[in-house]
Each structure stands twice: as structure tokens, then as C-alpha cells.
Amino acid sequence: MAAVLADDGRISINELATRVNVSRATAYARFERLRERGVISGFRAEIDAAKVGFPIAALVLVNVHQRDWRTARDELAALPGVEYVALTSGGFDFVVLVRAPSSAALRDVLLVKLHALPSVRSTQTIFILDEQRLPFAGVHYPEPEPPH
Q1: Are 6 and 63 within one domain?
Q2: How many CB atoms within 10 Å of residue 103?
Q3: What is the DSSP letter of 72?
Q4: Which end of the chain, N or C, is surrounded by fewer C-beta atoms within 10 Å?
Q5: Tens of pLDDT along 125-134?
Q6: Is the whole model's pTM more than 0.90, yes or no?
């Protein structure tokens, strides 16, 4: 059911019931349980950033002073054009997705605003040349092989 809703969040309960092969009442009850449990956290329109004036996208890998990670997370999220912030493990502390109307605007976000944050130690920027966004509909793993 979650996969069907991820594909089309505006689907009617009747159509949802048909697609998952259950009664309308069952589909409605399952849908409400998903909402109550927080599995479905909201409904959004998917916006094409380039078509609304933000054709430049970059992933910015950020290292911060470790004691400041909570503050840094909030400061990074408040930067202009930031769409996504993730605290990560490995060589960098954060991955930030930034969208901008031009390379000059991105430059200003990175070199003027981001590097002015006292918690930031270093960054690495990776330009996104093409992207394909897929809805999250659950992860499917093959069944494990039984032991011999």
C-alpha cells in the first residue's frame, strides 16, 4: 500500500483498494493506520527545481567542530537554497543539497554564508550534472537462502 501511495499520493481510496486488491473499508483502515503511526508524514507536490528557477544543484560535504554539530545542523538548514541536510559518518560530518538560480548565487551561499559559520571547518562541493529522484516506497530484499 505504501508503494502505491508513494507513486500517487492523490489516489482515491476506491482506486487504492482496487490496486492493492482489498475492500474500500480495509484500504481506508490501513491508510488511517499508516497516518496514525507516522509512516505517512504528509503529502507534497514534487517541484521541478530547474523549471522554477533553480537549475544549479550541488552536494556540499561539510566538516564541523564536533562540539557544534547540533548548532551546525540548524545553521546549515537555514542557508538559502538548502533542500536537504544529513548528519553522516565517515570523512564528512554533513551532506547538504543546495539549489541555486546561478553559479554566482551558489558561490555566494558557499563562500560568503556557509564559510562564515563559526562551526564549519572545511567543505567539498560536488556539482550535480543530472539527477533522477525516486519515491521511497520501502526497501525490498530477496529472501535469504536457507542454510544447507
Answers
A1: no
A2: 12
A3: H
A4: C
A5: 999 999 988 7
A6: no
Rounded CA separation 65/17 (Å): 51
Q: Does any domain span residue 72?
A: yes
CA atoms within 13 A on the CB side of 106: 20
* Tally of domains within the chain: 2
CA geometry: angle at 121 spanning 116 and 122, to 5°?
A: 95
**Residues 6 or more apart whose Cβ sits within 8 Å of residue 120:** 62, 63, 64, 72, 114
Domain that holds residue 84: 50-127
Edge-to-edge order in the sheet of strand 56-64: 82-87, 94-100, 56-64, 120-127
